[in-house]
Fold:
Amino acid sequence: MTDPTDDTTTVEANDGGIDRRTAMKALGATLGAAAFARAMAPLRSWSADQSMDEFLQQHYKRLSDEDMERILRRLEQETYDEYGAQVHIDDPQPIPGVQFGYALNLSVCNGCRKCVEACHIENNHDRSTNNSYIRVFEMEQGSMDFEKGTADYDHTVPAPGKYYMPVQCLQCDNPPCVDVCPVEATWKEEDGVVVDYNWCIGCRYCQAACPYHARRFNWKKPEIPTGEVNPVQAYLANRIRPAGVVEKCHFCLHKTRKGGAPACQQACPTGARVFGNMLDPDSDIRWVLENKRVYVLKEDLGTRPRFFYFFD
Amino acid sequence: MADEKEKTGKVPHYLSYPRFLWRALVESTEGNRWFYVWMTFLTALALVGANAWAHQVADGMILTHMTDHVSWGLYIANFTFLVGVAAGGVMMVIPAYLYDDREMHDVVIIGEILAIAALIMALLFVVADLGRPDRFWHLIPGLGEFNFPMSMLSWDVIVLNGYLLLNLHIVGYLLYKRYRGEKPDTRWYIPFVFLSIAWAISIHTVTAFLYSGIGGRYFWNTAILAPRFIASAFVTGPVFIIVSLQLVKRFTKLPIPEGPIQTLISVVKVSILVNLFLLGAELFTEFYTGGSHAKSATYLFFGYDGHTGLVPWIWTAIILTLISAVMFLHPLARKNFAFLNAACILAFAGLWIEKGMGLIIPGFIPSPLGEIVEYSPSLVEWQVTVGVWAFGLMIYTVALKIAIRIITGESNLHAELGTTDGEA
Amino acid sequence: MAAILCAALIVSLFEAPEFDDDPDVAVDQPETDDLYEDVIITPPGLGKLTTSIVDMHGQFVGIRCSTCHGAGDIGDPPAQYADELTEFHREMEFSHGDLACASCHATDDRDKLTLASGALLDYDDTMDLCAQCHSSEYKSYQHGAHGGMSGHWDRTQGERVRNHCVVCHDPHEPAFPQVTPADPPRDRFFGTQ
Structure:
């Protein structure tokens, strides 16, 4: 600041009058503020869509029953307003003594993607991206290397020399995604790993941490035609997700916590999928674990999945 | 004001502190023609970035080119790099306070101001990367739900904000004291300075742990990631300061001695070689062992399965860093400032790629399930990135200007109150 | 015969004999009565040949085997293998190991099936027939690891719905057919290979 005009600084500071420089600064500040407001204008329409209730909503574990009741009704109303669909959202709790386990028979899976499709419909996924929590890999016979597999095969199945490997959230007992979440928006319940879509800040650290590509991010607001919205919804499960949050397979807890089968199992035409309570010694899943040679994906990472694969 | 005239040293803080802040505001809006041109230019860029970000929030992150496969991109790349720049500022603090380098001591505030500006940029990049910035308060301990100590990101929130506060305190305290014409009380800043030295190492270590702690991403899951981060931080911070010192010398009345620049050149000379060595050690392990752990590095350096998106980036980075390393080793770097500045710029650009795009993106390619989805930033991402950098440079410029005007005594309480200067 | 004996043995094991004098033991038993029974989807028209004749409801008419293979029987001796057929049933595909027609179909009562033991079996009990050879599948089936499941995993909440063998497998050509898969994922920037 070798400029001699800088001397005006001190003059101006002591002088209450408005000189040319002050006027210019005021003008500049006004212009700057106006330009800033203009630049931020897109936020106006966005913030109009956000409710104060949602903004101030507390963490799931701190909500009272009344809070949850109010939130569920609000979410139903929002779904009606935004998607035109009458839905019922509830919040089923884990069944005491129940820990879900899932096993998949790779000998019979034929890669038809019926599970993918069923998940897409059941869980109110975005139609434009054909999103689903399940990704089926067409693997090369004799190899367990995913890099030799493809998920976008589009020919009749099963193709010769191939086997098929559906991958979804493995509901790890030691989930890296839960460890990394900075705000505890995802956590482990007795029966599986869940996400609170109203608490997630969208940092996507869990996506980076998951070794199974199980997590999906809502890059935009999901598009679902009114008539296709699945109206049976749950808070931690298949309710329509807001933009900017992470989601993942929850073993259809809106059904399974009421004793029902997950949509992917229900849809499987080959009977490759076995689901049940791992703590019940008489359950189907326990029989598979005890009698089949099961394995888990990337066991070396120590994630202890509750989703098992086996060959007959 | 007249009644305070005779006892200027005793001007109460409740009067002098608001005046100090006001002075800072005045200084930040005053300057010569070039200052206004520069600030207007930066403001324009920052506004472009703000606008792009507003669109991104309104329409969703679909405006970026990130995907479920490559879920972090240019923002997190810049974040990582800038944490390094912030940590690198400590390379002025260490000589000044640990080795009692008097000349460095006189200009150390530049390093601390760089840390402040770089941290603000880093934090802005994190905000830009959030899918739900409106839920930022969930990250605030006490108010939200803070997953400490389990999540490395919660550690990062603490160390980054802590380092920002430390530097704001040190810089603010020293400038305020100088503004009042008083000698700073060592008890009020020396402990913080020493804390900040350890803290500077911690910010980049924690940021490295953010990645190296992820078992499923082999490219990041390496113990030398933190040392590599620190090594490159000790290049990027000092080279930025070397160039800054020369600009300060040219545009302000602050005397810039030769010593600090020479010290920083020595620091860079070593660090840039250590960084290259660590990179080489990493690459040896990757490529000699091979297998699935080396897939990301293969993709990065040579392309994989016909996908070569990052190959030009990383080789540019390697070449820039190598040339810069050779230039720093050349004796001319100590004499010829044009030569030195060129070396600085090459190093800065090279490491921006290597610790940014070259580190974050390949971690996602191939995906844990072996899929390859490539990534190149969208226009919106570039706009936000340029905007954040412009905003950061505005902060840096303004903070430097305020600091220098106060340090040189051009701006002080006594002059304003018309009292005698009691400064030592 | 052995299969029947085994089956009878298994059944007798499950039909808890009334040995329990001590009521406490009975209390400790799972209250199996409270569990919903499995529902097994059995395709209609088993043991009938579907014709091209449409009835008043628009359904194809199925005729019992004995309609043609009556008392007088047709084809004497009956064809051993499918490729010996000169008329009738030639539109069907046969690909089930080396099985001859009479391996499963009773020759003396055409409305029945026959086990390897020679015992006759109703068409509705086909699973027992299949189990003779496919015992490991049958065992898996009994434990829910084959044959699919829908309905409820928790049988205190609702019934488990299972498939009958022939829902998925055509006994004459049991291999699962090739199918066209549902749509592949449409992730952005993905799928250029």
Remarks:
- Residues 2-14 of chain C form the longest helix (13 residues).
- DSSP finds six helices and seven strands in chain C.
- Residues 1-30 of chain C have pLDDT under 50 and may be disordered.
